[in-house]
Amino acid sequence: MAVRVLLFAHLRRQAEQPEFDVQLSEGASVRDLAAQLSEKGLDLTGCMAAVNETYATPDTALSDGDEVAFLPPVAGGSGGSEGLMQARVTAEPLSLSDAERFVVRPQFGAQSYFVGTVRSPNRGQTVTLIEYEAYASMAEKVLRDAAAQAQTRFAGEGEELAVYLAHRTGRLQPAEASILIGVGSPHRRAALEACDWLIEHVKAVIPVWKLEELEDGQRWVEGVRPAEVL
């Protein structure tokens, strides 16, 4: 059988191309695929895997035609009200007014926002820019799932929440917005708590990586591991 392999962040630099097909025996698992790639010189230590845009374990069985992404630790669903959520990953600048237009509605007496921007200096070094790389289709799926979870967790009985989530990709200068979250709710507490939960949850699970450009070189920003690693 054949599976499609996708590589991201520093893994892309280890291979001749970031996407390629691999032939496997029937019944092979993610672990078997990883072992085959490691034999060819790809260092997957500490990486996670996603099969068809869903986080997987090393024991996950593969099928012909599967898309398997190997993901370094990320830099920081079901249910929900689809008409009250908007999630996107974009190379375009983020605008607080876009979030405002989405979450400000007559039934919501409270809105809460979070804007994350590129910081410099970081860890004692001047950052000239950050390049954000994303597994975009999976990242949007992760954002939609996070919005749905927030709606379930924080909406009061008989009430609804509007959730706006957007994440930038590409090269950003210091002070440019990299992530934008907006929540609309009938009451203040739900809006504030949902916004706070969303930023902590999203930064741990969204497949986005950050390459910092420094005055004396580059470094990948160390991420977190939301799934079982190889």
From TrEMBL:
A Pfam family hit: ThiS
Any single GO BP term: Mo-molybdopterin cofactor biosynthetic process
Signal sequence coordinates: none
InterPro entries in alphabetical order: Beta-grasp_dom_sf (IPR012675), MoaE_sf (IPR036563), Mopterin_biosynth_MoaE (IPR003448), Mopterin_synth/thiamin_S_b (IPR016155), ThiS/MoaD-like (IPR003749)
SUPFAM superfamilies given in the database record: MoaD/ThiS, Molybdopterin synthase subunit MoaE
Alphabetized NCBIfam families for the sequence: moaD (TIGR01682)
Entry protein name: Molybdopterin converting factor subunit 1
Species in which this protein is naturally found: Deinococcus radiophilus
